[in-house]
Sequence to fold (116 residues):
Amino acid sequence: TMEMMARILGDMSSYTVQEELYFDLDAFIESKPSEDQPFYRELCKTHAFSSFLDSRLLHPEKRDYFAAEPELKSSSLLASYLYLRGMFNVARGNKIEALEDFFAVSTWNVQLFPHE
Fold:
């Protein structure tokens, strides 16, 4: 969802140079915790990221409510992030890291897991 993208990528404006419409992708990824960097590298290759970045570069006056108010970060957003990162770890074959993320999800929002 747009809310999740805005919250996960909310600090990306710190890495844009508006005069040149340039985004410092390497600095952005390096600013993230080392254990999250592979996730952000893959995320930044997606069409959703490109669209989000283009929107921010072409319309810098637009600010997302979610990115502007960091204290509004919810436990459900954190759970969504952990679930997404867990799925990323599964895809990369990092089973232990995936299990750690999925276990952490259950602390924040167990409803993200499929059930019968």
User: Anything to note?
Assistant: The longest helix spans residues 75-92. The first strand starts at residue 16 and ends at 17. Confidence is low (pLDDT under 50) at residues 65-72.
